[in-house]
Design brief:
This is Tbc2 translation factor, chloroplastic. It comes from Monoraphidium neglectum. About 55% of the residues lie in helices and about 0% in strands. By secondary structure, it is mostly helical. It has a domain of about 130 residues. The chain has a two-stranded antiparallel sheet. It starts with a strand and ends in an 18-residue tail after the last helix.
Length: about 950
């Protein structure tokens, strides 16, 4: 056994943030002013040779030499400060990684930027009994004085090798019972240790379970310590220096809907306390776990979880073997089922994931499903299983949601039935955990269940705390069609994409590739939208929590279980409202924004919170003042070294959506900080950073752009730069009017063209484009059809396989997976944006690549939005590519079907009316059904392209159409 680093995650992070803030402040003031710091930064850029313009002017003459020496000295000083920042950043990252790997009891996973990039944030909570909640609220853990060496360290050696089972005999049984009673009556850790020492013999399994359980209860209840008495007596007991930081414990009310309160924070175990826990756990080594019965196993695992312990590998194996033995018992009774649930909950809190077979067997035993798994055949005339108590059901749901456990159809249906039956007895915490778990498990509950859940959650929102509200809002934002992934480029995929509903489901990664998902009930196919009553109640409660936290921060008073967790809950609540496109009442929205600002000002907002808040406000259509945003960025500036790839990309994306341009100094630090992290960026983060920065009019420095190209080239070669990333990155280069480079483009043709791309790269030297007459294009297309017949046939089928990863295409709505870079997996939006960018950059595709592109887009034209048709027509004309007759036939049919040219007919007044009817867009550049016409800019592009691709009006007659110049 070893202590969990998760218990000190919050204070380590706070200390790292404070250290970085102080270091940056000292570096900013070291030269006397901010301007000198900026000059030092510029000097450092010049010394490195990659300033904003990518070159350094050589100084001329003695004055120039002196200036150069001064600049070099300033650059050297700044380089030293930056090196110190990097060391701090690495130290903080190592501490955060260790804390995340060892995090056990807090169960508060920091929500990821899924909804911003490719996933959704998750907020985890620990269900517990009402007695546990009351014990936590009683007070903080005891604080013991330091003592060295810890007296409990020698117990492990004294107990080694002793039998674990109870000894036979009346006298021994009486002594064992007396020890158990003494342990249960102990009111301090020292009394537990004294009882074990006075026993004179190694504790058996019952004593180990009782002692660990009592120690966990004492830690939660905050029993008075014996530090003063032991110090006076000169005893080296379970002393330990009280830690300076605290960890937020579990929060919220019970399952009966009682008012939710935040318990006081828990201190970490000191050295002596940890030694006693390890000594007790050492009794389970060497097969001791297998000797535990279900009751002892549940008690030991629960106690270790509440004591913030981390199981060593051999302890994990023993615990899982003991759980397998408990789950294999035939015809499990209700009490055994509850013990199995407790074991699953504790293992989830300890971050121990059982194998899939054992997990599903444990779920079946917990739910009372007979005749499945290891439980053996069902008993004759066996009735329906007795339902689990509400607290046990919610604990099981939480554990499965924590694991994102793969469930079969039987387990999923039984779980949904049990949740629906217990919904009336659950309070806000239980309801929030239920909705959260269903979304995490990607279950597809019926619309009736979702409506009942929403009504119950709205009724109990008044007694929910911020954590319950955050979980419920996240669940509401994720429960719509949870079985399907977010459309590429939709709100869950990083911007842009195919036609998607406003409330699309975030892409939640499966726990295992072989997971068997439950079949959806017939009514689950209907779309469910959270009712306004639920969202209004939850947003109002979240605003009240934000206002209370802001007031506590202003008064420098502690707020419940921890200010950092409150800030995290606020960020998740705000993100969920943005995901739902639900704008709260103005007062509530103001309170939420003020809470974010207060948390940032107090240093409580994590890097992820900055990104989530900025993106959420943009999605809600809020317009924060420039001063508010500058203040938020000022606080983010102090912790920029702690930003990871997702946080950095998400914050820049939010700023781009809000149309807020940061200061030059802020951007200079952001460029410098992200340049060193670009090798860690994924394709989505790379594309988002570049697109958002360019959209704000910020040209990347030459050194940053070189690092970006190197990283994206590596991703291209690994076939990880998919269509959604390319459709963001290439238009950004088009806006910069700077091509990525010959090597990058050659790899782009090779990887995106499939077989045609491989052949195209080898023929680039002979021909750089498909131009000339239509006959030449047709012959080129026909000559390449034999070499790429398999690609052509697969592009017209209902399902395609990409070589770069799993990809599935749904012909019904054109939704494609975002993991492949093959152009045959691109949707119409990606094709239009990529071709438009190639035209802006003047990059004519190789003949075979262009032929494959035209074959693929011809299959997309019947359902292509008119604005995407306009983009492709304009780009083909700009690149002087002549599409084949079949492509032009499909294009003309699509333009006639959607009435895209209606806005170019008749007088100016009639055209204005047609444009007014055509403004109902779907949010991705396509007109709404039944709304003819295009915006003037797209209409002018379309007419300009048709004049060059179809000069004679063979496919699209120009009778009654105005010229493009008149638009």
């Amino acid at each position: 056994m070893k202590p969990a680093a998760g218990a000190v995650a919050d204070q380590n992070g706070s200390h790292a943030i404070s250290t970085v803030r102080n270091t940056i402040s000292s570096s900013s003031n070291s030269n006397g002013s901010n301007s000198s710091s900026s000059n030092g930064q510029a000097a450092a850029d010049a010394a490195r040779g990659h300033g904003e313009n990518g070159h350094t002017d050589a100084p001329a003459g003695p004055a120039g030499a002196a200036d150069g020496a001064a600049a070099a000295a300033a650059g050297s000083r700044l380089a030293d400060r930056q090196a110190r920042l990097r060391r701090l950043q690495r130290r903080a990252a190592a501490a955060a990684a260790a804390a995340a790997a060892a995090r056990r009891p807090s169960a508060r996973e920091p929500p990821d930027l899924g909804p911003i990039l490719h996933g959704a944030p998750s907020l985890l909570e620990l269900p517990r009994s009402r007695a546990g909640a009351a014990a936590e609220a009683a007070g903080s853990v005891e604080v013991l004085a330091a003592a060295a060496p810890p007296a409990a360290a020698d117990l492990q050696a004294c107990w080694r090798g002793a039998p674990l089972g109870p000894l036979p005999g009346g006298a021994e049984v009486a002594r064992d019972r007396a020890l158990t009673a003494r342990i249960g009556a102990a009111v301090s850790w020292g009394q537990v240790e004294d009882a074990l020492r006075d026993h004179g013999r190694a504790p058996n399994k019952l004593h180990v379970a009782a002692a660990l359980s009592r120690l966990a209860q004492l830690r939660l209840s905050g029993a008075p310590g014996r530090a003063a008495a032991e110090a006076a007596a000169g005893k080296a007991g379970l002393g330990g220096a009280a830690p300076t930081g605290t960890v937020t414990s579990n929060s919220g009310g019970g399952w009966d809907g009682a008012a939710a309160g935040r318990p006081p924070p828990l201190d970490d175990l000191c050295e002596g306390q940890q030694a006693l826990v390890e000594a007790l756990a050492s009794r389970l080594e060497g097969g001791g776990w297998r000797a535990l019965g279900p009751i002892e196993l549940a008690a030991v695992l629960t106690a270790l979880a509440r004591l913030d312990q981390q199981l060593a590998p051999h302890h994990e194996e023993g615990a899982l073997a003991a759980l397998a033995a408990a789950a294999a018992q035939p015809s499990p009774r209700r009490r055994l089922r509850r013990r199995v649930v407790t074991c699953l909950w504790a293992l989830a809190r300890l971050s121990v994931t059982p194998p899939e077979g054992l997990l599903r067997a444990g779920v079946r035993v917990s739910l009372g499903i007979r005749g499945g798994g290891a439980a053996g055949p069902a008993a004759p005339n066996a009735g329906p299983p007795e339902p689990l108590p509400p607290e046990a059901l919610v604990a099981l749901l939480w554990a499965l949601g924590r694991w994102r456990a793969p469930l079969g159809a039987g387990e999923a249906q039984a779980l949904q039935a049990a949740a629906r039956g217990a919904a009336a007895t659950l309070g806000p915490r239980g309801l929030a955990v239920t909705g959260w778990a269903f979304a995490r498990l990607r279950l597809r509950p019926s619309v009736g269940w979702a409506e009942e859940w929403a009504a119950a959650m709205a009724a109990g929102a008044r007694s929910a705390n911020g954590h319950d509200v955050a979980m419920a809002l996240w669940a509401a934002a994720s429960l719509r069609d949870p079985g399907e992934s977010a459309a590429p480029g939709s709100s869950g995929g990083g911007g842009g994409g195919t036609q998607g509903r406003p409330l699309s489901t975030p892409a939640i990664e499966a726990a295992t590739a072989s997971a068997v998902r439950a079949e959806a009930p017939p009514e689950a196919a209907a779309a469910w939208r959270p009712p306004r009553q639920l969202l209004d109640a939850l947003s109002h409660r979240a605003a009240a929590e934000a206002a209370a936290a802001a007031a506590a921060a202003a008064a420098a008073a502690p707020h419940g279980g921890g200010a950092a967790s409150t800030a995290s809950e606020l960020a998740v609540s705000l993100w969920a409202l943005g995901r739902l496109r639900f704008r709260p009442r103005s007062n509530d929205l103001h309170a939420l924004a003020s809470g974010v600002a207060a948390a940032a000002s107090a240093g409580q907002l994590a890097p992820q919170g900055y990104a989530m808040a900025a993106c959420a406000l943009a999605r809600l259509g809020a317009t924060p003042s420039a001063a508010w945003l500058d203040g938020l960025l000022g606080h983010a500036y102090e912790v920029l070294p702690l930003f990871g790839p997702r946080e950095a990309a998400g914050l820049m994306m939010g700023l781009g959506a809000l149309r807020h341009i940061p200061s030059e100094r802020w951007m200079r630090v952001w460029w410098w900080d992200t340049a060193g992290k670009l090798p860690e960026f994924g394709p989505q983060e790379l594309a988002l950073c570049l697109r958002a920065a360019v959209g704000l009019g910020q040209a990347p420095p030459a050194g940053w752009l070189r690092a970006w190209l190197a990283r994206s080239l590596a991703l291209l070669r690994a076939r990880r730069m998919g269509g959604p990333a390319l459709r963001m990155a290439l238009p950004a280069f088009g806006a910069l009017e700077r091509a990525p480079g010959a090597e990058w483009m050659a790899e782009f043709w090779r990887q995106t063209g499939g077989e045609a791309g491989l052949a195209s790269v080898s023929s680039i030297s002979s021909s750089s484009s498909i131009n000339g007459g239509r006959d030449k294009t047709s012959s080129s297309s026909s000559s390449s059809s034999s070499s790429s017949s398999s690609s052509s046939s697969s592009s017209s089928s209902s399902s395609l396989r990409s070589r770069g990863g799993s990809s599935s295409i749904s012909v019904g709505n054109g939704a494609v997976a975002a993991s492949s870079c093959d152009l045959v997996t691109w949707d119409a939006f990606t094709c239009g944006r990529v071709l438009w960018a190639l035209a802006r950059l003047g990059q004519s595709p190789p003949p075979l690549w262009a032929a494959a592109f035209l074959r693929h887009t011809r299959t997309l034209l019947p359902c292509c939005p008119p604005q995407r048709v306009s983009d492709m027509v304009w780009a083909l004309a700009t690149l002087e590519l002549s599409p084949p007759d079949a492509w032009m036939d499909a294009c003309a049919a699509r333009l006639a079907e959607c009435g895209a040219l209606e806005g170019a007919r008749g007088s100016a007044a009639e055209r204005a009316v047609a444009r007014g009817r055509g403004r109902g867009e779907d949010g991705r550049g396509g007109a709404a059904p039944g709304a003819p016409g295009l915006p003037p800019r797209h209409l002018a592009r379309l007419l300009w392209g048709l004049e060059r691709l179809d000069p004679g009006g063979r496919w699209v007659p120009r009778d009654g159409l105005v010229r493009w110049q008149e638009l």
